[in-house]
Each structure stands twice: as structure tokens, then as C-alpha cells.
Specification:
The protein has 3 domains: 13-118, no CATH class; 156-274, no CATH class; 283-328, no CATH class. The longest helix has 20 residues, at 208-227. The strands form 4 sheets. The chain has a two-stranded antiparallel ribbon with strand order 1-2. A two-stranded antiparallel ribbon has the order 3-4. The mean pLDDT is 93. The protein has helices spanning 33-38, 62-68, 77-83, 86-97, 104-113, 122-133, 138-147, 151-155, 165-169, 176-187, 194-204, 208-227, 233-241, 245-255, 258-273, 283-288, 297-309, 316-328, and strands at residues 2-3, 6-7, 14-16, 28-30, 47-49, 56-58, 70-71, 101-102. α13 crosses α17 (297-309). The chain is mainly α and 329 residues long.
Length: 329
């Protein structure tokens, strides 16, 4: 409803029946604001505001809990969590985002169901995790997931411990993929295998784009470490132009890896030259020279592009002349 230049969403107060599937009640009936507040998850989410007077209406002690910095389930914590087990993850997100301490009774209830998120779809779990990882409080959220015992149910793998240093040092603007990569390394640093990446993809229902970027970050990070310092300009420019470079660098900076400072010092000059210029030589040029498309095409094009990236050609004509010599030699 539009009123006074504002959009107001109108809903009816309701009370829920019994939850039978871990998410939805079997019945709903109209009620008043007190009963409506009682069905919600945490006291900080059970507050109402009178739109005309601005008065805060609190039937569940939410204002006191906010003032005390406490996240508390409304009523029976076990009942609230069994109604929708995703609330266990939401507890971690709210506590991290708003800097709250989880009430001991609520924390104990979370721990009791942490191993079993029955009834919660992987899509909902993935979406909740994304919301945590896109916020600057991501490290605290991940720490809560792990310390509350939710890690196995969320990620589908056990871990003896988790190092939060890398994810804590990520920039506030870090994306989901960088955060997942840092979390993955924090849990089991020696394993970033395709099989493990696939397990996380399925556990969190990552999109194809998210999965591709996550894999690129994890694969590019060690390549930067091993190849940047000893590589020529072509090697460095290819690394800098690769998918996942920004994310891999964010991780290396978070780790305070020595190569990160070297890369950052080199990048301005490389960018000034052009990290990914248009190739002087293309496949059409090779065909025009009488070469047949085949296995020799890619090595020839790569060789020509590497020389170009290293500044070895003054222009396209020089590049084509060199390729003709290589062809004939």
C-alpha cells in the first residue's frame, strides 16, 4: 500500500499450528500481535513499530536483549529450532552481524540439532551461507558455524579444526567465492581437490559461475606463488589476466604471503603496458599464411602472444613477419 509517499507492506497477525516438515505449520489462524510475536524465531525479530506513533511494541523482551547484546530464542528454544532448523544457521548470522552473544539456552538448543538439518533444503542452506559471507562479519559467522557444530551438516565434511585468520583478513568487499576459498583452506589447507570442491558445490548449491570462480581462485593462488617471481612479463600478464586473479590476490594479501607485495608492486607497470592486449596474430592470419588448422596452431599463437606480451614486437607487421619465419624454419 502506498501511503504518504511510502510503500507499506500489509500483513495479518497470525498464529501457527504444528510444524510437521521442519519449515511450515500445518495450519494458520488469524490472531493478535502478541501471538504473532510469539511464533517468531528470536526476540530481536519479535518487535513491532506503530507506523503512526513510532512506538516500539515488545511482547518478548527483544529491546532488553538488544540492549544487553543477547540473541535469544522466543519461548522454548528447542521448539523454535525444530519448527525450522534453518534457524540454527540464522542464529549464527544474526549473532555475527549484530555483534550479539547467543543466550546459553538458545546455544544449547542449536548444538542439540547441529548435526541434523533435516527438512532444510540445500538451496536454503546455501542462501543463508551466502548472506553471511557477503557481510564484513563473515569470519565471526564462520567461527560460530564451526564452534556450534554446524560445519558438518552445512558443508558435508568433518574437520578437526578451522583457522579463521585468512577469512578474517579478507577485505570487507570480498565476494562469496573468496570467502569460501578462505574457509576451505582454513578447514583443510592441504586439500583443494576437484572432489572436495564438488562436495562444497553440492552442499551449498553453488551456481556454475560461483563454482567456476571458486575453482579458479583455488587453482590460481599456488600458480602465482610458484611462477610470478621467476616468470617473465608474459607469464605475469597471463596470470594477472586469468579468471580468479583478484580473488587469489585477496587471499594472498590476507595470508600476508611475501609474493603479494611483489605482485602489487609489479602491477602498475604491467597495466600501463597492457595486461591483455588484442593479439597481433590470430588463427585467421595463420590460415592466410597457408597453415592448416591443427595441433600446431595453438603453440604458434601462444608463442606469438608471449613475445607480444614481453614487448618483443613493435607492431602487427613485425609479429606476422616473425611467424612466417617460424613457419618456414
Amino acid at each position: 500500500v502506498r501511503h504518504g509517499g511510502r510503500s507499506i507492506e500489509v500483513a495479518t497477525f497470525r498464529a501457527d499450528g504444528v510444524y510437521v516438515d521442519g519449515r511450515r505449520p500445518d495450519a494458520v489462524r488469524f490472531s493478535d500481535d502478541r501471538e504473532d510475536a510469539a511464533r517468531r524465531d528470536f526476540t530481536i525479530n519479535g518487535l513491532f513499530e506503530d507506523p503512526e506513533t513510532g512506538e516500539i511494541i515488545d511482547h518478548v523482551g527483544g529491546r532488553a536483549d538488544l540492549a544487553a547484546g543477547i540473541l535469544r530464542a522466543i519461548g522454548s528454544a528447542d521448539d523454535r529450532l525444530h519448527e525450522d532448523r534453518l534457524r540454527a544457521l540464522r542464529a549464527a548470522r544474526f549473532a555475527a552481524r549484530f555483534g550479539l552473544v547467543i543466550d546459553p539456552g538458545t546455544e544449547a538448543a542449536v548444538r542439540r540439532i547441529a548435526h541434523d538439518l533435516t527438512g532444510v533444503s540445500r538451496e536454503r542452506i546455501g542462501n543463508e551461507v551466502r548472506r553471511m559471507l557477503l557481510h564484513p562479519s563473515r569470519a565471526r559467522a564462520v567461527e560460530l558455524i564451526e564452534t556450534l557444530g554446524l560445519g558438518v551438516a552445512v558443508l558435508g565434511e568433518p574437520a578437526p579444526s578451522c583457522d579463521y585468520a585468512i577469512i578474517a583478513a579478507l577485505p570487507a568487499t570480498a565476494g562469496v567465492e573468496e570467502s569460501l576459498a578462505a574457509w576451505m583452506l582454513g578447514r583443510i589447507p592441504a586439500d583443494v581437490s576437484p572432489a572436495r570442491q564438488r562436495r562444497w558445490r553440492e552442499a551449498l548449491m553453488l551456481s556454475n559461475d560461483e563454482s567456476e570462480l571458486l575453482a579458479a581462485i583455488l587453482n590460481l593462488r599456488p600458480r602465482i606463488v610458484s611462477s610470478w617471481t621467476g616468470g617473465d612479463r608474459a607469464v605475469r600478464k597471463r596470470l594477472a589476466a586469468a579468471l580468479g586473479f583478484a580473488g587469489a590476490m585477496a587471499m594472498l594479501r590476507s595470508e600476508r604471503h611475501p609474493v603479494a607485495a611483489t605482485v602489487d608492486a609489479d602491477l602498475p607497470a604491467l597495466r600501463a603496458e597492457g595486461i591483455q592486449p588484442v593479439p597481433f596474430v590470430t588463427g585467421d592470419d595463420l590460415v592466410a599464411m597457408g597453415m592448416r588448422p591443427g595441433p600446431a596452431f595453438r603453440p604458434m599463437l601462444d608463442r606469438a602472444y608471449d613475445v607480444q606480451l614481453n614487448g618483443g614486437f613493435s607492431d602487427r607487421d613485425a609479429a606476422l613477419a616473425a611467424v612466417r619465419e617460424w613457419r618456414d624454419g
